């Protein structure tokens, strides 16, 4: 049950984490004015591309990143940002090419290692993903995703002590991010530490009640305790949030 719930999903595509993403849909018009006044400024296109990416307007984002790269072919941030949009569009080959270009230009760019690692994890290439997260950590990254996602790989390998250490580091870097709490709770549960598991999972839900994985993990704790009615309620809530989330459906099947 723990293996099924822990790491079968890759999480949402991280468009909201596009590097240099300062814009949202609300200020795209102001960014357009910046570009109108600075038509040869690659950073202006990169920033607006990031805003389009946040808004899910991938084709417009690609056009802006293409323009930024045309102006400055060594703009490694734009390559990494464009790669993230390609991931969102499901074009992992193009994403890989762009991450590789970014890292050739700047081999110390931790964001590109993390992004490429997430792409590898999405594709099921966990060893390659692990190596990229490790590379970012070796560069002393302060991005919590590197630790959280390396922790997920430790978790799938059954190395829960190491996973807990990584999730704890991710939490220290971003205390308001819910997923590392939920993930750490699952590893505590795997170690038989129900009390800490329940505390972490409930903390994740306090921070964000829309995460199906956290509701499933809460269900697992209740199920382990034999509180099947409560477990069923948690699994059902997860299934309402994400009707295609298999661990939620499997949990409901077990306790119904």
Automatic annotation (TrEMBL):
The keyword Signal does not apply. The keyword Repeat applies. It holds the Pfam family TPR_2. Keywords: Repeat, TPR repeat. One of its GO terms (cellular component) is cell outer membrane. InterPro entries: TPR-like_helical_dom_sf (IPR011990), TPR_2 (IPR013105), TPR_rpt (IPR019734), Ycf3 (IPR050498). GO terms for biological process: receptor-mediated virion attachment to host cell. It comes from the Bacteria. TPR repeats lie at residues 42-75, 76-109, 110-143, 144-177, 178-211, 212-245. PANTHER family: TETRATRICOPEPTIDE REPEAT PROTEIN 6, UDP-N-ACETYLGLUCOSAMINE--PEPTIDE N-ACETYLGLUCOSAMINYLTRANSFERASE SPINDLY-RELATED. This is Tetratricopeptide repeat protein.
